[in-house]
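The material for today's practical consists of a large collection of protein records. Backbone structure tokens are a discrete shorthand for how the chain folds in space. An example says more than a description, so a record of this kind follows:
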Amino acid sequence: MTNYVIDLFSRSIGGGRVRPENPCEDDGLPGPPKAKAVKRAGVEIPLEPAAPDRPARKESISLSGVFRSYANSNGSRTPALQNIDLEIEQGEFVCIVGPSGCGKSTLLHLLAGLDRPTTGCVTVDGAIVTGPGTDRILLFQELGLFPWLTVRQNVEFGMKMSGMPRQERTDRARFFLRMVHLSHFEDHYIHQLSGGMKQRVALARSLTLKPKILLMDEPFAALDAQTRDLLHDELERVWKETSPTIVFVTHNVREAVRLGDRVLLMSFRPGRIKKEFEIDLQRPRHVEDSDVAQLSKEILGQLREEIDRSFNAEYSREEKR
């Protein structure tokens, strides 16, 4: 975890990721010349530009035909993801649910640049993802905070690594600590904080880099229900104020409906996007709301089908031994 954080900030000094030649783009070969005008009765009439097929979308993330499999010690391969086609718009909040082992975290690692697809393309703003970059920040359950640094020094770490002047990074760190309501704890050490406070320190540190995309892998799973509810409110408020794209993995269906613009349900391994649920409920929402509970029940019914498939697959594997 610590190595990932240091590597990510080190890349920021060199300007982030390097964009290679994009195999998903057109080949660039010249096609037939496009007519700019036609002649009718000897008179040249300019052609109007063709109307687009659909309104332009601000796509932040695109996955096209993504497969991911891993080699086993016996020479076979285990498929983790299969035929993932997904587009996520800029500023969208997308939650992903699915049974354990269906590839949710693998999908986040592909987006973060910590892994590469076996086949297919993963792009952010049209550029192929080839490695970690400061435009994409991944928050784990284990937060990667440095226990020998104070809260403010943790938040400043990435900016310090990038060479930002001391006063500027201090001002920015204090701005985001105020945003997550930790101003009074800037000189405390990490072991002096609660679990929820540590989560907010990690969030503030991520926001100082002004990422376009926040990737969150079950960040609230280890917290008690009361703290988790408070952090739902905090995360939603920060999202509205800073407008990043958020991809949020969770096992908690109500949490997904509470937070997301969309909820993606993944199937049992190999993971596919089984169904998308548009969440049209008015914000702010709460997990106790009747509408949230009703939609969660619908999603959970389909999720249980995939959980049953995973159990049956495990039982049949045990019987064959």
Notes: Residues 205 and 272 are 32 Å apart (CA to CA). Residues 59-144+212-320 form a domain with the Rossmann fold fold (CATH 3.40.50.300). The first helix runs from residue 2 to 13.
